[in-house]
């Protein structure tokens, strides 16, 4: 977290949050790295900071560059080595318009080297995990990490330490399932424990949120679901019967479609 003060930024070390913030390393680790990177004030490795300790945290002043301007710079694949495209065939898009809502991305330091890594979801192909090498360079480690999620329509992802072992695990939602859960072994590899975690689903899941809702020290999971298919765009047809001379929709669309004659 940072706050402006006399031309410097206040950096609070991840994992050492003030008690009043109500945060833990487990809950905030992935988000913290993203925020620090986007703000442009994440200290580089080997930098010397004058740390001052407080109750439950420590902080240091960061110098702000006198020249230049705030903003973002577009890094082409030739620089970052991130070559990824979320693809969706025209045939699938026409059959199910809900797929056109797109997919998500997760950011977090899954290997604990101090750099924010990137996980990208794909609607029509394999997902990709890019390890951050520093200096805005990445390398694709999807296969060795075991998180490709082939043959599923991935819609969202999040890094979180679901088992409390200090390593960021990975959860991936999918349109039509399964909602995958991968445990991080701390050595660059993930194990698929979807069935054991009880996340096998055939719903139209799109995104997730995690928090310790009941205060028992473990992360709880909330999954947002959308329509699995768009109405009458997946080769389906309305099942209609007449009641008292009025058409009534039956079956899967009974709660979603009503026929009205004017």
Quick structural summary:
With 262 residues, the chain is of the alpha+beta class. It is 13% helix and 31% strand.
Molecular structure report:
The chain is an alpha+beta fold and 262 residues long. Among the domains are: 77-227, no CATH class; 230-261, no CATH class. It is built from 5 helices and 16 strands. The protein has helices at residues 25-39, 77-80, 90-95, 142-145, 194-197; strands at 4-5, 8-12, 52-54, 57-63, 105-108, 117-120, 128-134, 137-140, 154-160, 169-174, 180-184, 190-192, 204-211, 220-226, 239-243, 246-250. The strands form 5 sheets. It has a 4-stranded antiparallel β-sheet, with no helix packed on it. Strands 5-6-7-8 form a 4-stranded antiparallel β-sheet. The longest helix has 15 residues, at 25-39. The chain is elongated.
Number of helices: 5
Order of helices and strands: EEHEEHHEEEEHEEEEHEEEE
Low-confidence stretches: 1-9, 14-46
Major sheet characteristics: 4 strands, antiparallel
Give the % helix: 10-25%
Strand residues, percent: 25-35%
Q: What best-fitting shape do the alpha-carbon axes yield?
A: elongated
Q: What's the total count of β strands?
A: 16
Averaged pLDDT:
79
User: Structural class, please?
Assistant: alpha+beta
Largest beta sheet: strand ordering: 1-2-4-3
Gyration radius, rounded: 23 Å
N-to-C CA distance? 58 Å
